[in-house]
Amino acid sequence: MHKRPLPAGLQFLLTLLLVFLLFTASAISAQTPSPTPSVTPSVTATFVPTQPTATVTQTPLPDPDLANRMANRTVITAANVARIEPLYTWQAHSSIYSAEIPDIARISSLIFNPATGQLISSAANGDNTGIGIRLWDITEGNVNAIGNVFELDPGRSPFILNSLQISPDGELISGAVGPEEYIWTTGGVLVGNIGQLSSTTAAVLDNSSVLIGGENGTIGIWAFYADMNGLRQEDGYFIPTSGQLMSALSVNEPVVQVSSDIYQYGRHYFVLTRSGKFYKYLFDGIQSEVLLVEQENPGVMSEWLVPGRVLMAFRKVRPVVTFAGRYRDLVSYNYIDNEVIARYPLTQPARCLAYSADGDLLMVSEDDPNGRLYLLDAFNQQISIELEVDTLVTSCAFSADGTWMATGDQNGEITLWGVAGSD
Fold first, then answer.
1. pTM of structure
2. For residue 75, what pLDDT is reported?
3. CA 102, 108, 159 angle in degrees (round to 5)?
């Protein structure tokens, strides 16, 4: 039987298909499997962000009786201040202390996370191993180190971490180190690196903005991008956002602390300068200005304030901020009525301030080398109790639930205070 030949066009298409199949098979057979190369991250940034680890070298555990007393503590109030006692002290950071450089090993900041109750500390290690922010789990009556938010790469910077502050939702931490401001998640990811000139202090306002003050007197509100899903990665590390300036002005002298408070759905910003001038910073989203709160007193010599101290405290459910005044005193200011409502004289300059959860007590540490720590009654400005310490307390904080006081000293130790047992 005679077969009819295929049409010429169809023969051409079949020929092309055969050539394509032969080429593909040859290419596949020529490939040889190769292992995925091992990539060692090349860290070029000053800071090496680390994820918290479950096992660390420092895990201090109280004895069972003490753990039980710590777990059964009660809220600290003006009625039970006489029962406050130090419940536990541990070496949280370096123990090296230098008389020539007295701040080199100090606990520079202590804050309680309002969302988790964890304690967060920062310090310059003093032994050339850098500086770090560390997390401590104290919620179950024990004190367990649960990891580092970050460690400064050793030998990279001589600066000490200043002005550690946490966002209202407990998700982000800010800290000024040398000329730059850094923003981390509490999980240890560096999400913001803002290079405002000579930054000395900052306050995270929310998950997208931060208030920064500098040595040159500049105050700026910066927007940044904190969504890790949108951050670029390089060699396994997130590349932090550099931020965008939204508002800026100058107070013409170094800024030692900025902070903010939320009252009646409004946010309020505050600025404290080296000479002790205190400003209310006004920003409506478009324009900004500052309102001088603390006026000059020509008959009294003022003294310089320095960065790295907690010199502002907010009285919780009231529109009141207390700050270290320029004439060695504490000044309480109602920022809604714009009036000074109380003053308290100090023996030595203030080192740190912190209000209790109910706003009735103000913890004050004065700059005494032998240590001076006391609680003021916020209503009558009288000392409710003077607590026994034997060294300079450099940082202090109350927990959000009101059951803990924490203090950090110049030797790198942290002490938890409380009222054990129920009322």
1. 0.78
2. 93
3. 70
